[in-house]
Design brief:
With 269 residues, this protein is α/β, with parallel strands linked by helices. The chain has two domains: 38 residues, no CATH class; 193 residues, 3-Layer(aba) Sandwich (Aminopeptidase), CATH 3.40.630.40. The protein is built from seven helices and ten strands. Helix 5 runs antiparallel to helix 7. About 9% of the residues have low confidence. The protein binds zinc ion (ZN). The site of zinc ion (ZN) has 5 residues, from loops.
């Protein structure tokens, strides 16, 4: 008797629920608003809140996009710069070769690059920084090879104006440290560190003209890439593998600097 009663109740409940069509799908559909046509069902062809598909192959924004950089190969034309007469090498030729490679590398990174000279031209010092000023350039880099009275002097050093601010110093430091790091993959280059134009010998009180804070309006640095009068270093300088490493290092320095500073930072308009 008891069993019969339970069966009767269970059957009644089932009959009551039957019109609601409770199933896994139907239950979910009950939370959807009702329309005259019945319950709304998800239509796979309609997406009420479309999420744009991510670009399957997104093109990254070049790291130096929008940057205007002036590359200044030192000397040129009637001014050979430092000379190695043993090897018949002139500073003006080596820094031009490196400068042209640097231009290509920075352009690949998205920068607009202007060179103070792309050939064997004679240029005044003022023409170099004035080009940067006229272009409203964001950064200026001057490329040189060092020379000393002894032929065993070696290494890389980078100059920045002692009176310029932190941004100039950070810019020079990024260029220097990354260039030395890249050169170290070729040989154990001597790191001659950052030098302050205006305070560090031999410039005591006197400044390197092209990177003088009073003349040039954008952060500027001058790199002395090894000693041309040291035959060992001069022989490295003319090898394209070594030049490529120096360029990679300088380019990495620009990228590092651009991660810390906007291109407009440090400009004096
Ligand atoms: Zn020089």
């Amino acid at each position: 008797m008891k069993t019969k009663k339970i069966l009767l109740i269970a059957t009644s409940v089932l009959l009551l629920l039957w019109p609601l069509n409770i199933s896994a799908e139907g239950w979910r559909s009950r939370v959807w608003p009702k329309t005259p046509e019945g319950f709304l069902r998800p239509d796979p062809t309609l997406d009420p809140d479309p999420i744009p598909d991510p670009d399957p192959d997104p093109q990254p924004v070049p790291k130096l996009s929008g940057w205007i950089i002036v590359v200044d190969p030192g000397h040129g034309g009637s001014d050979p710069g430092a000379v190695n007469s043993d090897l018949n090498l002139m500073e003006k030729d080596i820094v031009l070769a490196i400068g042209l490679k640097l231009k290509s590398s920075l352009e690949v990174l998205g920068a607009t690059v202007k060179m103070t000279r792309e050939g064997n031209d004679t240029l005044s010092l003022s023409a170099r920084y004035q080009l940067a000023n006229n272009l409203n350039a964001h950064r200026f880099i001057s490329l040189h090879n060092n020379s000393a009275s002894i032929n065993t002097a070696e290494g890389i050093e980078t100059w920045v104006d002692a009176d310029a601010g932190q941004i100039w110093l950070d810019y020079a430091t990024s260029l220097h440290s990354n260039t030395v790091k890249a050169a170290k993959t070729y040989y154990n280059v001597k790191d001659r560190k950052i030098k302050l134009s205006g305070t560090t010998p031999p410039w005591n009180g006197k400044k390197i003209t092209v990177i003088n804070y009073s003349y040039i309006k954008c952060p500027a640095a001058l790199l002395e890439l090894n000693f041309i009068n040291n035959n060992t270093e001069a022989n490295r300088l003319i090898r394209s593998e070594y030049q490529n490493l120096l360029v990679e290092g300088m380019s990495q320095g620009f990228i590092e600097h651009a991660t810390y500073y906007q291109k407009e930072a440090g400009l004096r308009r």
